[in-house]
Each structure stands twice: as C-alpha cells, then as structure tokens.
Amino acid sequence: LQKLIHLLQATDDPLIQEQALITLSNSAAFSVNQASIDIIRNLNGLSVIGGMISSGVPKVKEKALNALNNLSMNIKNQEKIQVYIPQVCRNIESASLNSDLQLAGLRLLTNMSVTSDYHQEILHSIPCFLHLLSEGTERTQIQVLKILVNLSANPAMTRHLLRAQV
Asked: Which parts of the sequence belong to the Armadillo repeat-containing domain (predicted)?
C-alpha cells in the first residue's frame, strides 16, 4: 500500500495512476480489509487520492472518486474526506451527464451524506441534483434520490430542499 501511494505521488502517467487507484480502491472495498483502510489513512493516502480528483484526466478522477467512496465507509476517513466535498460537487456538475465520473461522485456523496455531519457542504449542489433527477438516466436518478433522501432526513435541510431552484 505504501508503494502504491508513493507511486501515485511520483508518476504523471494516467494509466499507472488509474491502476494504482483501482488497486487501492479494491483493497478498501471489503470490510475484512479494515487494516488496509487504516494503513491507507495513516500513510496520508487519503490526501494523495483526494488530490487526484483534480486531475485533468476524467478516468483518473473517476478512479480516485471510487477509491474515496470505498474508503468513506470509515468515520475517521470521512473526517478527512469531507474537505474534498466541494471539489466532488464541482466534478459532478461539470461531468458529462450520466458519465461514470458523475456516478462515482454521486456514490461518494451518498456515503458522505448518510449522517448529517456534512450536509452543509453538499447544500449548494441541490439544484444540480434536481436537474440530474429530471434529466439523468435511471442509474443517475437512483444515486441522486439516495442523496436527497439522506438530506431530507435532516430537518435543517427542509427549507433548502423546498426552496431549491430547478
């Protein structure tokens, strides 16, 4: 894991970055790998992976979002991942409609919105979510609905949800 994280920091090759991100994502994907999740966090891997969501290569962004999604099942990781929520929202808004990149961002926000801890960071994207709900494919709509359901469970979000411009 340490070598993969160092590899991500050392290379500009998008193909190598994608493969390293896929491997890190897979290592965090299963609950039996709690040790891997902790190791990635302790090696500053969350910030290295989080930095990749600003890449100019859509596939690298997508793989980074998938890795953060798998790592976001841990509360300690969520505390560190939350700083990337504004960039994730920007990626969702600027990505092609129904693209894998857009879906990866929506899946990450679904996990990050399960508790109300980070709802404020997601708040400004409600109009985008409503647009995706009306224009997206079924897969996109399902992901958006999951986020909106999570937000609607928070009474503090009611006014924002009802006043959102579509």
From this structure: 1-166
Domain that holds residue 13: 1-82
pLDDT in tens, 13-36: 999 999 999 999 998 887 556 788
pTM of this structure: 0.94
Nearest to 154 by CA among 124, 127, 115, 121: 115
Tell me the torsion sign for CA atoms 68, 74, 80, 83.
positive
Of 82, 97, 123, the residue that ends a domain is 82
What domain count does the chain have?
2
Query: Each residue of 69-121: pLDDT tens digit?
Result: 999 988 999 999 999 999 999 999 999 999 999 999 999 999 999 999 999 99
**Helix, strand or coil for residue 33?**
helix
The count of other CB atoms within 10 Å of the CB of residue 104 is 25
Pair of tokens at residue 85: 């929520």
Cα end-to-end distance, the chain, whole Å: 43
Could you tell me if 49 and 15 are in contact, meaning their C-beta atoms sit under 8 angstroms apart?
no
